[in-house]
Specification:
Number of domains: 2
Strand order of the largest sheet: 6-11-10-9-8-7
Helix content: 40-55%
Shape: elongated
CATH superfamily of the largest domain: Aldolase class I
Order of helices and strands: HHEEHEEEHEHEHHEHEHEHEHE
Number of helices: 11
Radius of gyration: 23 Å
Number of strands: 12
CATH topology of the largest domain: TIM Barrel
């Protein structure tokens, strides 16, 4: 199986399928029965505001931001100065908003929460991608995501220059150690899945060099090298001899990525892209009220 086939199979994700529900839940938990503090602002007052980024970042989340304000008050106008995937420097104005002053303050927190969190994922992804620059190794995300925001975070990974692994258990097969143990071995696990007639590529997690040949012989389409050291990664590349793509995961740090790529593996997957989230520093400032 070529790595391009794996890419096609693993990245058919509708990033925005959950957007409306994401926003509905965010609005419900923040606004509840209504914004009590916003009541101090006269109902007819209009205002203008700006969203400013306070650090260098990769932007992501404009659609979620827009959807929040559309839900609060559809008459609010959001004028973006940047697009998702753009690199921005500190103190850049990301967008300007015009509309009801009450609506602007009521939507501020949920809108910024989406923007700062997804931009955080895109930003750390870009840092990891830069570590792989000049190599043919590609960066993959994982299922270690914030519950309810998987599609959104996988979109952020793409905005940061990374690639998506499977969206969930329903669109990709990864036979892990517990599956292997329960099925009675690598060959038995792969054979059982092949017998179902599945057309989804089958990836097998291997923990030893001895399992590599067995997994390939059993018909695995891709191998996940779990917690292999650099020397064993190089041996794995030699053993696989280009017959299936290899993914490395676990056992290495950010600074190790160039050395991991130098072993010749096709992919590295990093859970930190989505689970070790540090939000980008953003602020909204109302500049004019009338």
């Amino acid at each position: 199986m070529s790595s391009s086939r794996f890419d096609r199979a693993a990245t058919r994700i509708d990033y925005f399928a959950d957007l409306a529900e994401n926003v509905r839940l965010a609005m419900a938990e923040d606004l509840g029965s209504g914004d009590l503090t916003a009541a101090l602002i006269p109902a007819g007052r209009r205002a203008q505001a700006r969203v400013i980024v306070r650090e260098t970042a990769i932007m992501c989340g404009t659609r979620w931001f827009d959807a929040v304000y559309a839900a609060v008050d559809s008459s609010v106008q959001v004028r973006w100065q940047v697009e998702d995937g753009a690199k921005v420097e500190a103190d850049t104005v990301l967008c300007e908003l015009v509309g009801s002053a009450r609506a602007l303050v009521s939507g501020e927190r949920p809108a910024l929460n989406f923007l700062q969190s997804l931009s955080g994922t895109a930003t750390i992804t870009a840092r990891y991608v830069a570590q792989l620059a000049g190599t043919t190794t590609r960066l993959l995300d994982t299922r270690k995501t914030i519950p309810g925001l998987r599609r959104a975070q996988k979109y952020a990974v793409k905005c940061g220059g990374g690639h998506n692994h499977r969206a969930g258990l329903y669109d990709g097969i990864l036979i892990k150690e517990n599956h292997i143990s329960a099925a009675g071995g690598v060959t038995a696990a792969v054979s059982a899945l092949r017998a179902t007639g599945t057309r989804v590529p089958i990836e097998v997690e291997v923990e030893t060099l001895a399992q590599i040949e067995e997994a390939i012989a059993a018909g695995a389409d891709m191998l996940l090298l779990d917690n292999f050291g650099l020397a064993d990664m190089r041996r794995a590349v030699t053993l696989a001899a280009g017959r299936v793509p290899l993914e490395a995961s676990g056992g290495f740090d950010f600074d190790d990525l160039p050395a991991v790529a130098a072993t010749g593996v096709d992919y590295v997957s990093v859970g930190a892209l989505t689970k070790h989230l540090r939000a980008v520093d953003l602020s909204m400032r109302i500049s004019e009220i009338n």
